[in-house]
Amino acid sequence: MGLFSWLFGSPQEVKIGQACSVNFDSTKNKDYKPEIGDDVKLWAKPNSIGIFVYAKGTGGGNGLLATTDNKSISNHLHQKGKYDAKISDVTNNQLTLDITLKDDLITAR
Length: 109
Known about the structure:
Elements: H1 3-8, E1 20-26, E2 40-44, E3 50-55, E4 64-69, H2 71-78, E5 81-90, E6 94-105
Antiparallel strand pairs: 1-4, 1-6, 2-3, 3-4, 5-6
């Protein structure tokens, strides 16, 4: 176990088909007020385990709500995996999302 894992805990593993709650560090976006129950979009930074949470309906980098590092979610997103993600809790510094990774992949048309 590394020093950071010991201090802060290991990032939560998210399994296919199993709903779980994951905490994200809030970015304090003044243009978007996240509400419990809102659907959100997830984006994984290429060649990284960084996950970015965006308000649904935004694009071009706008609407950033929160970030975290999570290897299992980033791997799923890098493989074009589908998911459901919804805000389940909002605090000053954190968003909690209920995330379900699906075992089917997004296919190009």
